[in-house]
Specification:
69% of the residues lie in helices and 0% in strands. With 147 residues, it is mainly α.
Length: 147
């Protein structure tokens, strides 16, 4: 493994993964004293720092850790929702329609039911804009005559 990051390099990594920081230049400004630097110089230094092998490794580790936390959080939220649905099912003071709806959602979650949708067209659909306009004009003219 490579050399440990400096305090400022670590601050840059933390700023890059901060969702409120939008650019590497902003992350650089957060971690380093850049008040006397031009915007171009800040961008160049931020790009150079972002390419530093130790920073690249630290960013990969930080992003992997964030993804694991997000996945764990999503699993915990899913479990909490499922538990609330089961609580709804088991509560006999709840209206039966609500209990059935909760069971339906639990069944969908378990993959027991597939949502089905089917569209049936009774007449052929016009192929072109000209055919659609002609169809609309025909409908409009027949409505005027019928009145």
């Amino acid at each position: 493994m490579g050399k440990a990051l400096t305090r400022k390099q670590r601050a840059f990594v933390d700023a890059v993964i901060d969702p409120d920081i939008r650019t590497y230049a902003d992350a650089y400004r957060q971690a380093y004293s850049a008040e006397n630097m031009s915007d171009r110089a800040v961008r160049v230094e931020a790009a150079r720092l972002h390419a530093h092998p130790g920073v690249v490794s630290a960013l990969d580790q930080a992003r992997t850790k964030m993804e694991k936390v997000k996945a764990r959080t999503a699993i915990m939220e899913r479990q909490a929702v499922k538990q609330k649905l089961w609580d709804e099912v088991d509560n006999y003071e709840t209206p039966s329609a609500s209990r059935v709806a909760a069971l339906r959602l639990l069944g969908i979650e378990a993959g027991m039911f597939a949502e089905k949708s089917k569209i049936e067209v009774s007449e052929p659909i016009p192929d072109s804009d000209i055919e659609i306009i002609a169809e609309i004009e025909s409908m409009l003219s027949s409505d005027i005559i019928d009145d």
